[in-house]
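Batch queue: ligand-bound targets. Current item pairs a single chain with coenzyme A. No template structures supplied; prediction is de novo from sequence plus SMILES. Inputs echoed for audit trail.
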Amino acid sequence: MPEILPVTKDNWRALTKLKVREDQRNFVATNTYSIAEAQFGDDVEGEGHWDMFPYGIYDGDTPVGFLMIAYNYNAPRFQGYILRLMVDEKFQGKGFGKFAMNWTLEKYRADDRVKMVAISYEPENEAARQLYASLGFVETGEIVDEEALAVLSL
Ligand SMILES: CC(C)(COP(=O)(O)OP(=O)(O)OC[C@H]1O[C@@H](n2cnc3c(N)ncnc32)[C@H](O)[C@@H]1OP(=O)(O)O)[C@@H](O)C(=O)NCCC(=O)NCCS
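Prediction returned. Tokens below.
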């Protein structure tokens, strides 16, 4: 079984070495950028502050991917946001992405304060669209920062 572990002083360097394929580079920020962003979270007008939590996806001791999820219990539309998901090019297509998504949704479902979860992706990212649609995410038709927004009611 894969495992999802928080980013710490001990594992962050290894997680920054994970890479997606060349043709996928514009689908996701680097893990280094995401780990930096997570130190501060973000304030969104009309929503308030989003706290961000970065994780490594592991196959045993081997880091295979990266996940970053966000919470804002006061946000009016969705209180959870799956900000980043990537699986290293060497480990794609083996179920790690789906495992990480299911782990995340289980975590959000266990929290009564999270009623809706959102995710966004480049419109041409078919793998991402199919993965999220298979879990019940529905596109709203909105484009946020050039990405299609999809939501899931828990
Ligand atoms: C998208 C991504 C996270 C999926 O992770 P993964 O471990 O490769 O995917 P999984 O093996 O868990 O597959 C899960 C589902 O994704 C979809 N999928 C994965 N690869 C796919 C491909 N090449 N084409 C179409 N659908 C694909 C399928 O729906 C698949 O379900 P299935 O196996 O039941 O058909 C991974 O491909 C990735 O890191 N891509 C580059 C970065 C990125 O796009 N991140 C998402 C940003 S929003």
